[in-house]
């Protein structure tokens, strides 16, 4: 009997809607066609200092992208990772 193929977990994006860096990452991921789970981190309420978030990103910055056991805590690095590391189908750059 063949084993059922496991569905890969979607990356989790810890973000705040008013953060320009988070906005940059959402644009890159959406252009790339990446399905991700959005996790709101309200900076005005100090949720970036929550112990669970600090375990993910000790710098307490948003955005933070969690893909399996890899955490990327910089918007530019996340945009690059969505191009080079994460295995997604739609190219972000033109191929002409």
From TrEMBL:
Limits of the GST N-terminal domain: 9-90
Pfam family, one: GST_N_2
A Gene Ontology biological process term: L-phenylalanine catabolic process
Source organism superkingdom: Eukaryota
GO molecular function: glutathione transferase activity; maleylacetoacetate isomerase activity
Entry EC no(s): 2.5.1.18
PROSITE patterns: GST_NTER
Keywords linked to the UniProt accession: Transferase
Record field: catalytic activity: RX + glutathione = an S-substituted glutathione + a halide anion + H(+)
SUPFAM superfamilies for the chain: Thioredoxin-like
PANTHER family tied to this protein: GLUTATHIONE TRANSFERASE (PTHR42673:SF13), MALEYLACETOACETATE ISOMERASE (PTHR42673)
Family in the record: Belongs to the GST superfamily. Zeta family.
Protein name: glutathione transferase
Originating species: Dichanthelium oligosanthes
